[in-house]
Amino acid sequence: MKRSLFYFLLVVVVSLMVGCSEKDSNVKTDTSASSGGKVEEGNSATADMKLVNDGKLTFAMSGLLKPLNYKENEKLVGFDVEIGKEISKRIGLNPNPVTNPWETILQGLRGEKYDAIIGSMTATEERKKQVDFSDPYYISGATVFISSKNKDIKSLDDLKGKTIGVMQASTYVEDAKKYTDKIKEFPSEIYALQDLPPGRLDAVITDKIVGITAMKESGLEIQTVGEELKREEIAVAINKNNQVLLEAINKAIADMVADGTYKEISTKWFGKDLLE
Q1: What percent of the chain has pLDDT over 90?
Q2: 159 shares its domain with 134
């Protein structure tokens, strides 16, 4: 009888250990991330935030969007990463940035693989049907880029019927459809922009910041065309029915702006305040 009970308990313990160790293969954790100070688990202020991991704010991004979020020496860095770490610190949590393919990043959030998306996601009305968004943490705009050698495209009207590159599952897919049905989707805007100089694409629609940074840092011979297609409010996405976490994130963003920390981070990466 005792031996039977022993084996029964052993099976239960092993089953629990296996269940707790399961991870989604698409989600990659940046093990080098550190908050600079350990936060006690079970903090009463964060108890109602419905966190994936106690004591941590796990936030996702593609990791392919330089200078917003990308890997350098196997470590996640960039503007989004620093904003995420600062938010985490201010709400009493350790930061846990992870990567997930952009085309499934919303599904991963709704599947509770992470607590938030801090990865330069535009707060669109369509996305608001699935998740909640914080107040914006930067403002940008969709912009058209072409090769510097392209003499055929002089205005947005000239995009009609051209081959346009965009990031997979981005809002830019719909923007491109207004001009053409020749649309090529890429896992990263950087890959699309690199196809402009050799002429594999006629144009790319992407975030203004991403394109301008590629021009300056990578030396890509590209240029903008026309005015911004639209103004975009970039915000933190979290699951619905998590008001406690949403309010905490909004307060953290507001406090960062008020005490000058936000401007300091933004100026470090872009030379200006992206909320102005």
Answers
A1: 75
A2: no
pLDDT over 90 at 214, yes or no = no
Which pTM value belongs to this model? 0.76
Please check whether residues 44 and 129 belong to one and the same domain: yes
Percent of the chain with pLDDT over 70: 85
Structural domains of the chain, count = 2
Q: Rounded distance, CA 211 to CA 145, Å?
A: 7
Span 175-187, average pLDDT: 97
Co-location of 118 and 47 in the same domain: yes
Same domain, 211 and 155: yes
Rg (CA), the chain: 21
| 3-class SS string, the chain | CHHHHHHHHHHHHHHHHHHHHCCCCCCEECCCCCCCCCCCCCCHHHCCCCCCCCCEEEEEECCEECCCEEEECCEEECHHHHHHHHHHHHCCCEEEEEECCHHHHHHHHHCCCCCEEEEEEECCHHHHCCCEEEEEEEEEEEEEEEECCCCCCCCHHHHCCCCEEEECCCCHHHHHHCCCCCEEEECCHHHHHHCCCCCCCCEEEEEHHHHHHHHHHCCCCEEEEEEEEEEEEEEEEECCCCHHHHHHHHHHHHHHHHCCHHHHHHHHHHCCCCCC
Question: Rounded to an integer, what distance in angstroms lies between the CA atom of residue 230 and that of residue 211?
Answer: 15
- Give the model confidence (pLDDT) of 114-151 as tens digits: 999 999 999 999 999 999 999 999 999 999 999 999 99
Please tell me the distance from the alpha carbon of residue 127 to that of residue 191, in angstroms, as a whole number.
25
Confidence at residue 31, expressed as pLDDT on a 0 to 100 scale: 56
